[in-house]
Amino acid sequence: MHSKIKALIFGLGCLLLCCALGCNRPRTSTAVAAFYYWKTTFHLDKGQDTLLKKVAGNRLYLRFFDVVWDEQSQQAVPNAIVGIKENMKSLKVCPVVYLTNKTFEHTPLAKTDSLAFKVNELVRKLAAANQISYENVQLDCDWSLGTKESYFSFLKAFKKYSGKKLEATIRLHQVKYFARTGVPPVDRGLLMFYNMGKILPDLKAPNSIYNAADAAKYLNYLKNYILPLDVALPVFSWSLQIRSGKVIQVYAQIDRKELSDHSRFVHTGTKNVYQAIRSFYMDGIYIKRGDYFKFEEISPLTLDNAAKQLSTHLAPLEKRNIIYYELSTIHLPEFQEKDFQEVSAHF
Amino acid sequence: MTTALTGGLVWACADGDYDDSQYSNFSPEAFVDPQYSPFFYASSVSYYGNVNDDSNTRYNELVVKEWETHLKGKVSSKDLEVLLFKASDKGLDSVYKYSKGKLAVRPAGLPDVKSFQLSSKELDTFLSYLLLAKSCESFAVQKRTYYWDEKKPAPTGVPTELGERLLQEYQSTKDIFMKQRFWFQLVRYYYFQELAAAGPEQQGNGRLVSFFEQSRNLFPKNLMYYRALSYLAGHYYQQKDYATANYLYSLSYDFSADMKIPSKWSFHPQNESDWEKSLKLAKNNEEKITLWHMLGISNDPERAIDKIYALNPKSEKLDLLLSRLINGSEDPGDRYFTDTSSFAATERKRMDHNAELVGRIARNNNTAKPYFWNLGAGYLNTLSGHYALARTFYNKAKTQLPKNDKLLSAQYKILDWTLFLSQLKKIDAQTEKEMVGPINWLADLRDGKDTISNLRFNRAVAKSVETLSALYKKQGNLLKSNCFSSNTAFYTTNQNVEALKALLSKPGKTAFELAMLRYYPLKMEDLYYHQALMLVYKEKIDEAVPLMEKAGQKATFNLLGNPFTIHIYDCHDCDFAAPQKKKYTPLTFLKTMQSIKAEIAAGKNVFNNAYLLANAYYNITHYGNARLFYQNEITGTDATQPTDIPKEFRLTFTSGKLAEKYYLLARANASTKDQKARCTYMASKCERNEIYNSIYFSKANEKKYYWEEFSMIPSGKYFAELKRDYSQTQYYKEVLNECGYFRKYAGK
């Protein structure tokens, strides 16, 4: 509460100052940009490296590993541990661990403590092996009513073992229904402001990554959320492959460029929807005549709109982290440094 | 319309696995060589049936057999299995030392190699090879899972020294069996050596290709050869030469049944250009056919069928693809059509195209199994709605079916019957006569009275029930319609229930009626129980009792709690666990209600009796402790929320009006203020439940999963009365103590 008031006073002061100077912005943004990196091998090309440095001051939320439930051995195991081939010394890394909800469906309360111990140990070892020093850890789990208890108990134990500041990812529905879904016992929340719509084989359904109408259903609940919220924003696009009324697969690697090949696809009457006119292999994907491809795009403009829409509904927070998802899949010529700077400035 | 009874229409099985035979009418086993069975269409798993998908053990059995033959049966297969696959490298080392006399004691749990009828040279060759092969497992046998305690999940290196020894042995060995084994080990060694190299350029400099090419013709083209060939394929895959990799995988696929799974798993054309190159690598039509066949299993059966048929109409590699095409077309999946115009049109085009393709081939009549193509064309045309055309294909198939094949002739019958149903417009007496045989047969299959291995019939059962029920309904015969598919709404009219009872008890039923009733799941007792139940909620207890008596065993199970008891706080589990001097069954419960009602009518002990009756009426609602009283096959057995109750009975089983009425009667006859307070509070619970009902049943809430209204305290006139008139009573204190809602309300 105290910090909120302070932020408000700071904001007002700034407003007066800015107005005096004839500036449009109500206050100077103190937001801090960062990038996610989610692939299994950490390797940056030149463009990504520059972007990370210039936009985010080398702040990186790096997925260390997943925790999944292994049916065969009937235990939670780490999976897809990140392989790091770069020198990490110059980077400010926050380790991220993704835990499947299924893990907690199978992990009884009594075992959450030992799981937390193991996860913390692995984070520690991976960090040490790559000379990463870190102050925060982010845990990512789409928990449900049934797993709330064991996930939260895991988080408490993790805090105990790590002694670090913890951040947990928060989905929009978890903000709206926090009374039921609970608020995780961590220092900060990271609001995932994407994947808000359902992935449907409906050609006319709005963009499932971000659309203003779906977002609006949740925004009024943000102000009252108990945790300070950082924000994750989408910088990815993908295409849904739809066949016989079913979504067959979602592909990040197929975008407008591929779909605009007139020898293979026609544009249907519906915006961003294409249909295959032949059957063929393309980069390892088999496409059948008649398949629909629905391209769901986040352009710099959409991203800016999303940020504008969200920023007005958040409770004030100094130095809010704005994390862009994610570095390895950004379409580089399309997204420029200044795009990110403008978007971050909304917060 | 809510259907509490689902008959044969459930398509997923209870344990959560998805059973593809549930929606299918077409048994691939009837047509396709069993060696292809892992690739029969399966909607949710990689392989059909029970398949060994463990790459580390896949060839064990064959390898044992090869050694057994090579050693001329002098070592038992059991001992071979232990030495080849179970012994650790330390264990093998001890065995070797023991065989050389360097270890006096035989290693525990391992075979006594000295007792083998092998010459010392033979034994030495065998054990030396084993030791070397075992060392190679360190890099060649992959573990798949990461574990917490592993320091680094990096691949183990490939020791240089091991390669030198393998090469030495390979060069010096004369015996072709042994030589080929060292050759295989070397090929595999080179593969992993390349894989462990730093980058793709260095990988390309490996020795694998040159070694393989210069030595490939020294050995028979057996399993070992094709396993080695698959490593060569893997090399090309790593080099991104997908054309060569996929071509080589197709050769391994074709070699044997055991090699099919890993070869198919590895087969991944990337672009049309490399795919076309693979086809060009094929040395003859048969090799081309295998490539197309693999494309067909992986991605596109119709495209593959078209190509293979052009190359060789009699190819047995067509069979699997046709079965996959058919089973895939049957799969209802989780289709979701909102944009009906474009989806439905595209889908129809696809179905028509496939029916046309298979029909064209069937008409040409030049395949290896013409009946398969005719049945397939008939069925695909049935699925596409071209019934008359479908019939012509079936007629042709009938004349071509091999004699004395039980599965095939049953398959024909299933398809023929399904088409009959699809074409059926009206049911008259003659039709009923004709249907007796088929519907009895399907019921026999369903009940396990007739079993035909691998026959799929569930779709036919479901289709029968659905079609006949709908047709009878359309013809206005609700009774027969309900016999095929029992429907909740039917039971809301007593006349319907009476008609059903008359049919069930009719002497001398026709053959059709007998067959039809095999699809009706309920008994006379269920119907009596239902009639009694409905009367109870109409307060006609006297009329209900004799009907309940006829419900037999249905009415004699024990209710879990005492249905005449009530508390400030509803806790069903507490009521179930509480000691109960008398257990009530539905029948004894009703009879007790009857005598209580009689006493009230006679003016006896009215407060007490009205209070008990009110409790009983409360408890036989959704909110009370006796849900089992009203939950059955007709009214639904699995409702945990009021909205789960079939809507025909929702109000009946949730309304608190009857209970409220009797609580008020009790209050009017109460002698103390405390008693009045008690009745008022109980009436408030009925009032609260009505508020809940209005939230549950509100139209606006239908699509929400979280209802904010529930966070408000439901209060009404009885809370007000309780606070205003009874705040001085002892009972009021108890309510304050136990009921949080009221405490908050009163504290305002």
Task: Describe the overall structure.
Chain B: This is Tetratricopeptide repeat protein. Chain B: It comes from Pedobacter nutrimenti. Chain A: Keywords: Signal. Chain A: Residues 1-22 form the signal peptide. The complex is a heterodimer of chains A (347) and B (748). Chain A is α/β, with parallel strands linked by helices and 347 residues long. Chain A is 33% helix and 27% strand. Chain A has an eight-stranded parallel β-barrel, surrounded by five helices. In chain A, a hairpin with a 4-residue loop joins strand 3 and strand 4. The longest helix of chain A has 21 residues, at 109-129. Chain A starts with a helix and ends with a helix. The longest helix of chain B has 25 residues, at 340-364. Chain B is elongated, with a radius of gyration of 38 Å. By secondary structure, chain B is an all-alpha fold. Classes of the chains: A alpha/beta (347), B mainly alpha (748). The interface between A and B is large, with 38 and 33 residues.
Broad shape of chain A: globular
Mean pLDDT of chain B: 91
Strand content of chain B: under 5%
Radius of gyration of chain B: 38 Å
CATH topology name of the largest domain in chain A, in short, is TIM Barrel
- The rounded distance between the terminal residues' Cα atoms of chain A is 19 Å
Main beta sheet strand tally, sense and closure of chain B: none
- As a percent range, the share of helical residues of chain A equals 25-40%
Brief write-up:
The complex is a heterodimer of chains A (347) and B (748). With 347 residues, chain A is of the alpha/beta class.
Structure keywords:
heterodimer, A: 347 residues, alpha/beta, TIM Barrel, five-stranded antiparallel sheet, 11 helices, 33% helix, globular, B: 748 residues, mainly alpha, 35 helices, 0% strand
